[in-house]
Design brief:
Helices cover 70% and strands 9% of the residues. The chain is mainly alpha-helical. The chain folds into two domains: 7-117, Arc Repressor Mutant, subunit A (Orthogonal Bundle), CATH 1.10.10; 120-151. It has a three-stranded antiparallel beta sheet. α1 packs across α5 (96-117) and α2 (34-46) crosses α4 (62-74). It starts with 6 loop residues before the first helix and ends with a helix. The relative contact order is 0.11.
């Protein structure tokens, strides 16, 4: 087997390398971990999310969500409450301080991402976007097929 051509490895290692460059921005400048950044990004966009929604929208499990939330709450960037509809769930939202930090950090993170992607031609970037969309659709189809009972 050649790892350079093994698709799952190549995809994961490339995504990790890309992500590490972004961590340099929000980690070094703002002291956020990858998990904290993901939560802040989602909360700044959505306004508020439950612990279940956060786990579904990120690659984080419930424990990672809880730990990152504790750190963000300790920094005064988010607040969490018990969901009225289900006391097992937590509802998270950004504080004003969290929104401000996100507004400060996001343009710098986006500039870094744009600089990396700027090394690709427009056609390559378009193919990549189409490929990622197709891959996401294929994964969803696979998951649905795995859930269906065998006839």
């Amino acid at each position: 087997m050649n790892l350079d051509t093994y698709f799952p490895y190549k995809l994961a290692s490339t995504a990790e390398a890309f992500s590490r460059q972004l961590v340099e921005v929000y980690g070094r400048t703002y002291g956020l971990s990858r998990e904290e950044w993901r939560m802040l990004l989602l909360l700044a966009d959505a306004g508020q999310l439950t612990s279940l929604e956060l786990a579904q929208r990120t690659t984080l499990d419930k424990v990672q969500v809880s730990r990152a939330a504790t750190r963000l709450e300790d920094k005064g960037l988010i607040k969490r409450d018990v969901a009225k509809s289900d006391r097992r769930l937590r509802v998270y939202k950004c504080t004003d301080k969290g929104q401000q930090l996100f507004q400060d950090a996001y343009p710098q993170v986006q500039t870094c991402a744009d600089s990396i992607l700027g090394n690709m031609t427009e056609a390559e970037l378009s193919f990549l976007q189409d490929g990622l969309t197709a891959l996401a659709r294929a994964v969803d189809t696979y998951k649905k097929n795995q859930m269906e009972p065998a006839s």
